[in-house]
Design a protein that fits this description.
- This protein is an alpha+beta fold and 193 residues long.
- The protein has a domain at 49-110 and 122-193: Alpha-D-Glucose-1,6-Bisphosphate, Chain A, domain 4.
- Helices cover 29% and strands 38% of the residues.
- It has three helices and six strands; from the N terminus they run H-E-H-E-E-E-E-E-H.
- The protein has helices spanning 9-34, 58-71, 176-191; strands at residues 51-54, 75-76, 84-94, 97-109, 124-148, 154-172.
- Strands 1, 2, 3, 4, 5 and 6 form a six-stranded antiparallel β-sheet that branches.
- Strand 3 (84-94) and strand 4 form a beta hairpin.
- The longest helix has 26 residues, at 9-34.
- It is elongated, with a radius of gyration of 30 Å.
Length: 193
């Protein structure tokens, strides 16, 4: 047998190693440069987009937030706590799309920079974020054959599909007006007798 037609394990191993190294170098070099690094846009600014100060106690502020969520059709998903509340609401904007918004609210006492006087009302900071998850319907077709041996080799195709929701996106809602409306509703429940 000629030398060129013989199998050479060392040559095959060398080709596999070269292909693997080439694949790693190619994917690492291009994807790291073009990757979308959203954490670079985090400013950690002192804006009040995700927090608001209320002149009420911690328990009263979180209770007002709980009532605000309930009034808008949110289901409370956390156990009853005086300093935190979570709620979720589901939407179906399209026939094969499902969206959930989940609120997370934490109420903490505000620490004032100066000495507190006896007549000062309590102040609470409500930290709020809402996460929107988007799901799409994924169809997985299944097919099988049904054979009847008594008749002969007759096969009837049987098909079905398994549908499942797959999470396709998740993001913290950034819009300031969205939170402003929620904080306004909390204020309304705090002012209610």
């Amino acid at each position: 047998m000629p030398v060129s037609a013989r199998f050479r394990p060392a040559s095959a191993l060398l080709l596999v190693v070269a292909a693997l190294l080439g694949g790693c170098a190619g994917s690492n070099g291009t994807s790291s440069k073009t990757a979308n690094r959203v954490y670079l846009d985090e400013a950690f600014a002192t804006t009040e987009t995700f927090s608001r100060v209320f002149t009420s106690g911690v328990a009263a502020t979180c209770e007002a937030a709980r009532r605000a969520l309930l009034s808008q059709g949110y289901v409370i998903t956390s156990p009853v706590r005086a300093d935190a509340v979570n709620g979720r609401k589901s939407f179906q904007p399209e026939s094969e799309v499902h969206v959930q918004i989940e609120f997370h609210i934490v109420c903490v006492p505000e620490v004032s920079p100066g000495p507190a006087t006896a007549g000062d009302p309590p102040s609470t900071i409500a930290f709020v974020n809402a996460v929107q998850d988007r799901y799409s319907l994924k169809k997985n077709p299944n097919s099988a054959s049904l054979g009847v041996s008594a008749i002969g080799s007759l096969s009837l195709p049987v098909s079905s599909s398994d549908d499942s929701l797959v999470k396709v996106a998740s993001e913290t809602i950034p819009a300031g007006a969205f939170y402003d409306r929620f904080f306004g509703l909390i204020e309304r429940y705090l002012d209610a007798p």
